[in-house]
Amino acid sequence: MSKLQKYFVNPALFAAVCLIPGIGIHALQAQTTTVVNAASFTPSAVAPGSIVTIFGSKLTTVTAAVTDPAHPPTTLGGTGVQIGGAAAGLFFVSPGQINAVVPATAALGNAAVLITSPSGTVSGTVTVSATAAPGLFSLVGGGIHSGAIIDALTGRVGAFSVTTQSKTTFLSLYLTGANFTAPPVVLIGGVAATVTFAGASPCCAGLQQINVSLPASLAGAGRVPVVVQAAGQASNVVEIVLLPNKGEGAFSDEKENEDRHRELSVIASIPGTSLALVADENDDVIRQLDVVARKVVATIALPDKAEPSAIAVNASGTLAFVAERGLGRVAVIDLVTRSVAREITVGAGPVALAISGNKVLAVNGDANSVTIFDMTSFAVTATVPVGSGPRGAAADAAGHAWVTNQNDGTVSLVDLNLGTVVTTTDLGPTMRPAAIQLISGTPFAVIADPVTSSDGKVLVVNLVSGGVTSFSVNALKNGGAGDIVLVGTTAYIATQTGGVVSVLNLSLTGVVPTGSVTTVKTGPGLRSLAFDAKDSLLLGVNESGGMVVLISVPSNTVQGTIRAVVSESGEDSNDHSDHDNAGNMPKVTSVTPAVARRNSTINLVVVGTGLRGVTNLVFALPSGVADSAITVTNVDAATNGKQLTATVNIGAAAATGVRTVRIGTMNGTSSMGMSSAVFTVIP
Question: 3: which of 19, 58, 261, 528 is 20 to 30 A away, CA to CA?
């Protein structure tokens, strides 16, 4: 790799993580001079020379951005910042947010922060430390979700193959505040990647870069966590998607380094039945499986860009709750009609759900909070701040939920009735907990760390005494501990990068829990687990192969698989036809009038099916883009979902020609190119 390639950085990527105003502002309440690592948004110590974000109010009266990020000025838009008595370089200033570089000469310890601007002066403090935790940048800001990780040779962002044209794939990770006096360690799903370079990225002050080669063992791992350990400190956790080797994935036409249109993410069993629900995060659908018949029996569409990440089913098996990570909502699916009955707005990036009695808790991974809503009225009763990077949740029947905060290494106990955090348990600064399950009838919880070690670190925590017992459940040392399912006192733990289920048989009779471990091989990309109590089967989502693996309990033997990236008709193309042809999708059978002149206003009548819960109505050009010259108001949908009316203004600038009337609903958006939905603009 050439020196130029070694230092490559995508300018647009840097703009996305450092310069855009308001990045991650949802993650922290605006307070006067709250100073955080600009990558992780961790409000603790920051390192000399690192990029920081300062949140506040009335910090300045202007908004301005740097033009040369390699040499940020100390004054921008008439605004200056001093940290520890030294002038900071400035990337971006605005009344509510400033992005800056901590001076390398800033004194260590509690440092004064002074902001001077046309609006006056604002002061605060921050701890400057040479051993501050590094921050990994992410594509959406705030140090969560997909990491700011690119192909080191091409600059490409997206899913990656471990080899490119038979050669090892090299990646670049971007971070700030890392101490490189000792070689850093990059762990991907708990597996160490070989570091080929670690240092400053010369394009931008304060920005650091680590280049790694992808281990061959990570082929087909799927969406897995990434963490950097430097000078004894662990970074925040971001994510990466690793594809299977060519010819080993779910589709025969898959190409290297190409995002798939269908990607399984999570599974849940429907109580009292032989049915299960599996989510496809790229296709935005939920597929219902018949475990006995071993096939997909129904496809339920979600809105576009929903990115379903978690499923919880009520005890009667009539409603399923789906966390729509991409939309900040929870979809409520009627399992009788197999359609989305409503959506509930929660916080940004919901990644986990838990049910206690009549309460549902959604973990807002991008907003450092949880949202509690009622299962009957569907009204939100509370939104509660928790720790940094909340990831997993488990609830008891008495109205308590335990939430793992991945970037803090803590667990928050939330009272669902009061809507408050009762206590917070610290698991250690280098722990990055994710999945959590409660052992019924005991004070114990099982918590998995999927990323900081290769030996499958699992903690059994006494929630009353606070006692913690650590287990290493992966003797093969090929990945961290992922999802957890409990059957009595037996914990089934997925190793996503290793393609195995670890079976931890626990004994809780003594003062300290003990246990023995066996393993079941399932194949790479084992991302999610569920237990089908009726059929005594453990269900595992094999993201790599698009399969659901069936494991008999308690014999712990693989009984078969279900191909879960197909529709009930058996159609299995690597596209979105599965979503677009789902039975609950809105369909347009006629539009009246179908022709109108530009510079006119009409009363439109649309007839079809599934036209309920309408969120938008657009006139799409052949390119699929909504025609901005046509505006729609007064949309009124019939309760039976078979008709809607709207007032449509066709502007004078509207070009003559054909459009497709598309109806957006909670169940998705009606298809492009339907002859029954054609609308023509004439002169």
Answer: 19
Residue 311 · residue 266 · CB < 8 Å? yes
Residues in the chain: 683
| pLDDT digits 0-9 by tens, 576-631 | 999 989 999 999 999 999 999 999 999 999 999 999 889 999 999 999 999 999 99
Q: What is the pLDDT of residues 429-478, one digit of tens each?
A: 889 999 999 999 999 999 999 999 999 999 999 999 989 999 999 999 99
Three-state DSSP state, 310: strand
pLDDT at 18: 53
Rounded mean pLDDT, 362-370: 96
Mean pLDDT of the chain: 92
Report DSSP letters for 497-521, one per residue. TTTEEEEEEEE-SSSS-EEEEEEEE
Task: Look at residue 84 in the predicted model and tell me its pLDDT.
Answer: 92
Cβ neighbours, 10 Å, residue 13: 18
Neighbours of 4 (CB within 10 A): 7
Q: How far apart are CA 637 and CA 551, in angstroms?
A: 46
As a whole number of angstroms, the distance between CA 176 and CA 358 comes to 44
How far, in Å, CA of 336 to CA of 343, rounded? 17
The C-alpha atoms of residue 48 and residue 288 are separated, in whole angstroms, by 52
Q: C-alpha angle with apex 176: 141 to 156, nearest 5 degrees?
A: 60
Show the CA angle centred on residue 61, arms to residues 57 and 64, nearest 5°.
Answer: 105
Q: Structure tokens of 513?
A: 């829990």
Among 3.40.50.720, 3.40.1190.20, 2.60.40.10, 3.40.50.150, name the CATH number for the domain at 587-682. Answer: 2.60.40.10
Strand-pair category, 380-385 with 79-83? unpaired
Amino acid at 451: V
Domain boundaries, the chain: 1-260, 587-682
- pLDDT band for position 15 (50/70/90)? low
Please state which of the ranges 74-88, 276-290, 564-578 shows the lowest mean pLDDT. 564-578
Cα 554 to Cα 536: distance, rounded to the nearest angstrom:
8
Edge-to-edge strand ranges of the sheet holding 587-592: 587-592, 600-609, 643-650, 630-637
- Dihedral over Cα of 285, 354, 25, 146: its sign: negative
